[in-house]
Amino acid sequence: xxxSALESLAESIELKHLLWETQQTWGATTSEWLxxxxxxxxxxxxxxxxxxxxxxVRRLEEGxxxxxxxxxxxxxxxxxxxLLEPVxxxxxxxxxxxxxxxxxxxxxxxxxxxxxxxxxxxxxLSMQVLDSKERLAVISNEATQEAALEALLGQVADRWRIVxxxxxxxxDLKGVxxxxxxxxxxxxxxxxxxxxxxxxxxxxxxxxxxxxxRLDKQLKTFSDTLQAWLAVQKGWLSLESIFAAPDIQRxxxxxxxxxxxxxxxxKDIMRRAHDRxxxxxxxxxxxxxxxxxxxIQTLEEVQKGLEDYLETKRVAFARxxxxxxEELLDILRQHKIPQAVQPYxxxxxxxxxxxxxxxxxxxxxxxxxxILAMLSAEGERVAFGRTVKARGLVESWLTSVEANMRLxxxxxxxxxxxxxxxxRRPGWVLSQPAQVAVLASNIHWCQAxxxxxxxxxxxxxxxxxxxxxxxxxxxxxxxxxxxGALNDLQRKSVVALITTDVHNRDVVAALVRQQATSVNDxxxxxxxxxxxxxxxxxxxxxxxxxxxxxxxxxxxxxxxxVVTAMTNRCYLTLTGALNLKLGGAPTxxxxxxxxxxxxxxxxxxxxxxxx
Length: 611
Prior knowledge:
The protein is mostly helical. Helices cover 63% and strands 7% of the residues. β7 and β8 (546-549) form a beta hairpin.
């Protein structure tokens, strides 16, 4: 039996039934929508009903033969699809009063939104909303975008409601606080600035510009205040311990009074921040920024006054330039305690590690502030020729220490020079400070060379050969000595002299090899020559046509640089430059010894690194 006809008939009946139900349901539903309170309508349900009816109409259009009902249903559906768009826009929950004002201006009269108002879709249709749906879409989109910006703005504001400054106690002092780690606050501030920049760059910011500008101003004020706050704290921390010392207060009364005013302001701000640590509230407190800026200006003036004061101390004792401000101030704060300079002596003097202050001796009790000797890092002790009184201004008695150092070394060098010939060399070496032993030995070696070069050519060669043999014998003596039972200091002294003697032996061998016959030969003139000047009762150093007075700077028992041909060329360049009142800076690959060569040349000439 053929059932296709029955199936076709059943489908036709089903579609006609669907048409009847759809028409009845759609008519009843749309009538209800038209009369219902507009602001109570379920827009989502309307949208779903329109979509469902659209699908049903499409099925009817495809399955039923042409008739008058389906086109009418389609026309009604199309009208509601067009109306749904302005309905959705007007029911946008993000619409604010400013947006409704714009809607009223567009429609010619306001939309009644009061509770119980009889505003329906029919009312809106009478206001010709379909003619203004494009403009309604713009207003609705603006409201949505502004709401998104408001959400971002709210996130920034909410974040700052819980951000607090980390306030910690300063040195366990009661009621004295400082800002702790501010990295977290600064990170939040940076993130907020990025967000605010994004909000301000949006084209939809106009509606909330007042709120954005208000929060942005607060953040800028907070940023400026925090930066000033941290700057004041940095300056306060660096100066607080300085002006806490009564001695500094007496020496700098004006700066101390100015700092005291900053101190009171800063401590008051910190106490209030401790009681109310919310970051944004603290940073936007009226008057704080101005007070902090004034503190910064005052601190700069105090710092300048302090710098000028330190400069006077450095002018009085130039070696203070080797110390930082903090180190110099540490000394000045304790100027009544001479021993306070001990940790910084190594920076002021190349060879002095410590000063030996007075103690009882066989001759009688010494005063506690009397300086008796200087001690090197190697443990060498050199007694001063006369006691230095460590009293009064620090720069004054340190100047006396410097002068006494030079006088002591000059006297020791003169005595060592005179005793050199009268004593056996190994014993003489151990009885002298290492620096003096090398210096006196070099003077005698130079004298021996020049005596040998004053005869005829045959005599000169013979004398130089004998001197070369004598140098070898001296080295053998020192070699045997250094192999013996010596303490560390003695061993360092002997090794320094051996290093010098090896170079001297090589110079004599070079003179013999080059057949030098006169003190004016370049082979001798190019050497660093030490001479005792009877007229000035001092030691001079010569090289070619350069002449320098020895500086008598105490060096201790420092090791000596091995002199090579390259080293000697550097010496020639440096002494020539220094003789012309110029500077010198040998350069070359790393590790080649250019820096050490410069130091060695300076120590040889002046006993101090001034090159």
